[in-house]
């Protein structure tokens, strides 16, 4: 009977060791629970990128359909990209640069500023001997 108790204890110890190893693998292993948050964030980022690319693809598909179906899309592209102007049309270009004028009078410029005609030539020394 003593040998049977030892074999039961040994089986329990081996089962406990295997269970501990499996728990360690689950919590801290390469594909374990600790890595789950990182994988979820990568999945969310990839899903966002896929949706963004899908949106861009749908815009391009609509553009291709417009180009195949009629001349209005071709004319629009020619106007925007190539600067198409038809006969009889007037081209007007508006600037969105900021207005930089002032109603203040210009400051007086000093008239006694001396002009410099020429700078003196630098002295050339012969260092090759």
UniProtKB/TrEMBL annotation:
Keywords: Cell cycle, Cell division, Cell inner membrane, Cell membrane, Membrane, Transmembrane, Transmembrane helix
Membrane topology field: Single-pass type II membrane protein
Sequence ranges on the Cytoplasmic membrane side: 1-9
InterPro entries listed in its UniProt record: Cell_div_FtsB (IPR023081), FtsL/DivIC (IPR007060)
Transmembrane segments: 6-24
Protein's cellular compartments: Cell inner membrane
Residues exposed to the Periplasmic side: 29-129
Biological process terms in GO annotation: FtsZ-dependent cytokinesis
Origin superkingdom: Bacteria
The protein's role, per its UniProt record: Essential cell division protein. May link together the upstream cell division proteins, which are predominantly cytoplasmic, with the downstream cell division proteins, which are predominantly periplasmic.
Subunit structure and binding partners: Part of a complex composed of FtsB, FtsL and FtsQ.
Similarity-based family: Belongs to the FtsB family.
Protein name: Cell division protein FtsB
Species: Moraxella porci DSM 25326
């Amino acid at each position: 009977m003593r040998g049977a108790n030892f074999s039961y204890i040994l089986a329990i110890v081996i089962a406990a060791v295997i269970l501990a190893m499996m728990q360690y693998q689950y919590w801290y292993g390469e594909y374990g629970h600790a890595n789950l948050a990182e994988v979820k964030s990568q999945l969310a980022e990839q899903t966002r990128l896929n949706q963004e690319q899908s949106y861009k693809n749908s815009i391009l598909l609509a553009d291709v359909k417009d180009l195949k179906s009629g001349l209005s899309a071709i004319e629009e592209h020619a106007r925007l990209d190539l600067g198409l102007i038809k006969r009889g049309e007037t081209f007007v270009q508006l600037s969105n640069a900021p207005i930089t004028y002032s109603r203040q009078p210009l400051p007086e410029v000093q008239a006694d500023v001396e002009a410099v005609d020429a700078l003196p030539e630098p002295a050339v020394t012969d260092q090759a001997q």
